[in-house]
Amino acid sequence: MSEIPMMVSYHQQTKHHFHAYAPGPPRLDWATQPNPFRRYEGATLLPLEHLPPGDTPLYGPAFMAGHIAPESLNRRSLSQLFYDSLALSAWKEMGGEKWALRINPSSGNLHPTEGYLICGPVEGLCGEPMICHYAPKEHSLERRAGFPIDTWKLLATDLPEGAVLIGLSTIYWREAWKYGARAFRYSHHDIGHAIGAISIAAAGLGWEASLLDDIGTEFLENLLGVSDQKGSEAEHPDCLLAIYPCRKTDQHPLIRKMDPVNFKKLQWEGKPNFLSASHVSWPIIDDAIDATRKPATPGIYGTRKTIGKAPETTAESISLRKMIHQRRSAVDFDGQAGLARDGLYQILLKTMPFPGQVPFNTLPWDPLIHLGLFVHRVLDLDPGLYFLTRDPAQKEDLRVSMKDTFDWKTPEGCPDGLALYHLVTGDARGMAAQVSCGQDIASDGCFSLGMIADFEKALERYGAWFYPRLYWECGMIGQVLYLEAEAMGIRGTGIGCFFD
Is 425 in contact with 373 (CB distance < 8 Å)? Predict the structure, then answer.
């Protein structure tokens, strides 16, 4: 089976249906629950600074590139970047059990995502280029390898001045332990949350993040030092981000293709710790990993289209970092509280890929994810079904794929640039709960939503390797929704169980 049919088959096989759920473990084997913290035993540990959130920068300006003055690159600012994106945010305890929460959300709080720093010399941190794994429990960097300054200069040739690189990888076993075959989906949704978290944290420093998606899987696995990992606990490389001071250009940075042997032959420090005493094999995930290995694709995306114009930023008096660190996933809603109509519009505006709008300026491809909304209790807005087209040019294709009785009318008071449409009026609470595996949390909130993409068309255009990237875009939208809920004084949650 070729790669694209394989991923279409994976998608179909891992859907939840009314008559049966996707393949998963029959029960949770607590004796084999994976350790949520990867460590490289024997690697040099470089502690980072703990920097409690202050009153600045403000929340609103951070979401538009260039509205915050860039800070210098040094140990303190890199500490802030990791502290505001991939670090622990709290510890919880119940019934004698204790567990950590993190800045970046994760399905089931299982955290399959691992982070890496690749940098040149950094004041107060290192005198030579290095590759480090980030250890969130210790808020420290584990130095995996050093390499020559000439190699860094070559690597950074086409990057903006002052750039560092952040790599992300996945340990699928952490998700598969609980979720079985759907773990591949959930893990890449988590990658999207991490990309969003890093992009927003960088914006708080006056920096910008760009996904360097011209490179291939082989290059990245050698750069991160995970090419020799095998078995259930292996890390699989996902993506590489360039982080750099904001510039007055829309040109997306690139990375020069380099011989992966340059990094594979480095003297790597540390051995990965063991996460579980035993494992369950999920061949369907192994097949998906193989089918989505990415080749080098120089220039595949071209220039991103310009979609609308972001509204003027408002200097809300709330702190960006306080919102980041207080974010939590709601466990239930009261079914009573409402949301102002302008509040809903403000939330949805933040999910739009306007030029320079964080975190969506990080992505090199045109937007592919749209939102179907179940509106329950929004003041001055009829309850019912609504649809947000994040690329207005796709409206007609979306419209003809739906019921011809939908009215596609712009709701009253909808701001310019927000392509939101009313479809049908009615009580959508029962439907929202039903499609969310019968979970009342989907009907008790002010509104809930599903994310929609023509994924087969995207795979035909780019290749099977693009399948995870659809989830990355979804996860980034989810990260914005989480923070916007906090900024509105309410709370949000992600629903991973749904009938699609």
Answer: no
